[in-house]
Amino acid sequence: MNPFDEFRQHLTRRELFGRTACGLGTAALAGLLNQSGLSASEPAPRFGGLPGLPHFAPKAKHVIYLFQNGAPTHCDLYDYKPKLEELHGQPMPEAFFQGKRFSTMTGDPTGKLVLAPVEPFAQHGESGAWVSNFLPHIATVVDDLCFVKGMHTEAVNHAPGITFIQTGSELPGRPSIGAWLTYGLGSETEELPGFVVMTSVSKGTSCGQVFYDFYWGSGFLPSKYQGVKFRGSGDPVLYLRDPEGLTRTMRRGLLDDVAKLNEIKLKEFGDPEIATRIAQYEMAFKMQASVPELTDLSGETRDTLEMYGPQVQERGTFSHNCLMARRLVERGVRCVQVMHAGWDQHRSLTTELYTQCRDTDQPSAALIKDLKRLGLLDDTLVIWGGEFGRTPFIQGDINDRPRWGRDHHPYAFTVWMAGGGVKPGIAYGESDELGMNVVKDAVHVHDLQATIMNQMGIDHERLTYKFQGRNFRLTDVHGHVVQDILS
Questions:
Q1: Could you state, in order of their start, the residue ranges of all structural domains in the chain?
Q2: pLDDT band for position 16 (cuts 50, 70, 90)
Q3: Residue-wise pLDDT tens digits, 130-176
Q4: Interatomic CA distance for residues 476 and 470, integer angstroms
Q5: pLDDT tens track for 440-471
Q6: Residue 362: phi, psi to the nearest 5?
Q7: For residue 50, which of 41, 37, 63, 64 has the smallest C-alpha distance?
């Protein structure tokens, strides 16, 4: 066989691109170095991030997203509608749902009965915000909150809905909002990841939702920008401790040697994932010192711990994760995502909704108070909300109160925001008299994403990444900044 033919026959695609790295590798390396012209050994500003960002002066430096998996019921928590009480037990007027799509559990909503709020509402604070008795602690901080009551989305099921609000697409594979923020802005610390994720589930819940990694993934961005998940038991991250017999000095030497080998391959192939490997090995080494200090709560005052509630020292709880979120942004972490599952009350409004609110109400309010006490709320944007709302009509038998439920509802729901340049003590947007459809100041998921990025100093239309021949962005080709809620 001709040796040239044999060579071509055994040449892999990876080898082809690797051996032609003078062209392709240079382009890849330019992207790797954030198009800054810096060599790999020179530190990038802000410990990463792109040159020219932020696009304008940011109002917020950090984001804490208290994401409530399963869709909290706006009808029972924040969006008070007296008409629901008036029409309780009567068929839902068809004019409210004609032409609308619901989950297969509802199917055709014709004949579904209106369900009044499970608990009464009351007005609170100087702003007079309506909040259910389910949330007595959040009711104490309403003057620091901006309630966005005109939220709406396109997804009717959980995984697509969560993926959509986190990545801008219902299909997995796009970068999450935390990945976009750390890609564009970098972090304020070298000792911890720029994007940290923590998850929790209320005990005894019947909700079977799964926390998929793509909810905080980096998609087509280099994987160094994906969220680092802190575990709820054992060491927060795996391999935090060195094996017996391996000293810190030995570990340092080992990592230096591995980095040199990886740098050789980086120069040869220009693969951003090799740079990711180098960076993540270095981050892991630094986290061996920073994470034990981060997770040591012995320096917190008794008043602070009590403010977060009785579960604060129990790893893996929403309460513990809220306190950790504050400690993370104190140390310069750019984005913290605290995800809590269990809000999917198809048959458990009168049982499990009490549990969900008990586990999340006090810690959510405590986080706002704590950030404000420490002067961190001004430059930390806090968001609380789920992937959609829940139907104003009942799912189940209205005569069987212990089994009352509400189905998925994308057409109107409530999210609240605090800090980070958002106007406090206001409600923006309005649903109709039954909480079914947005009738004033609608805010789409892409609008919420654009607004979050705006507060971080990013023009959502300009932060893009070229993939498969197209420039992608978090908000796809949509999204408008909701200027009316910004101070």
A1: 47-236+299-485
A2: low
A3: 999 999 999 999 999 999 999 999 999 999 999 999 999 999 999 99
A4: 11
A5: 999 999 999 999 999 999 999 999 999 999 99
A6: -65, -45
A7: 37
Strands (E) across 154-194 are located at none
> Which three-class secondary structure string do you get for 315-360?
CCCHHHHHHHHHHHHHCCCCEEEEEEECCCCCCCCCCHHHHHHHHH
Concatenating the DSSP letter of every residue in 184-253 gives: HH--S-SSS-SEEEEEEE-TT--------GGGG--TTS-GGGSPEEEPSSSSSSTT-SPPTT--HHHHHH
Q: Cα(161)–Cα(110) distance, rounded to whole angstroms?
A: 24
C-alpha to C-alpha distance for 485 and 429, rounded to whole angstroms: 10
Match 């604060």 to its residue by tokens. 312
Question: Which of residues 23 and 278 earns the better pLDDT score?
Answer: 278
pLDDT tens digits, 212-235:
999 999 999 999 999 999 998 888
Is the confidence at residue 23, as pLDDT, over 60? no
Label residue 477 exposed, middle or buried (CB < 10 Å: 0-12, 13-18, 19+).
exposed
CA 197/CA 335 separation, integer angstroms: 9
Neighbours of 397 (CB within 10 A): 12
Q: What angle do CA 6, 11, 15 make, to 5 degrees?
A: 155
Tokens of 329: 């942004």
Are 277 and 260 in contact by the 8 Å Cβ rule? The answer is no
Helix axes 445-455, 158-167, angle to 10 degrees: 30
What number of H helices and E strands is found in the chain?
13, 17
Burial, 440: exposed, middle or buried (Cβ in 10 Å; 0-12, 13-18, 19+)? exposed
DSSP 19: H
Take residue 469 and report the two structure tokens written for it: 């021949």
Q: Which two tokens stand for residue 6?
A: 């044999």
Q: What is the pTM of this model?
A: 0.87
485 three-class SS = helix
What phi and psi, each to the nearest 5 degrees, are found at residue 354? -65, -40
* Banded model confidence at residue 39, pLDDT cuts 50, 70, 90: very low
Rg from Cα positions in the chain: 24
Quick one: fold of 47-236+299-485? Answer: Alkaline Phosphatase, subunit A (3.40.720)
198: β partners: 230, 338
Check if the beta carbon of residue 417 is closer than 8 Å to that of residue 383.
Answer: yes
Reply yes or no: is the peptide bond before residue 58 cis, omega within 30 of 0.
Answer: no
User: Could you tell me the pLDDT band of residue 334, with boundaries at 50, 70 and 90?
Assistant: very high
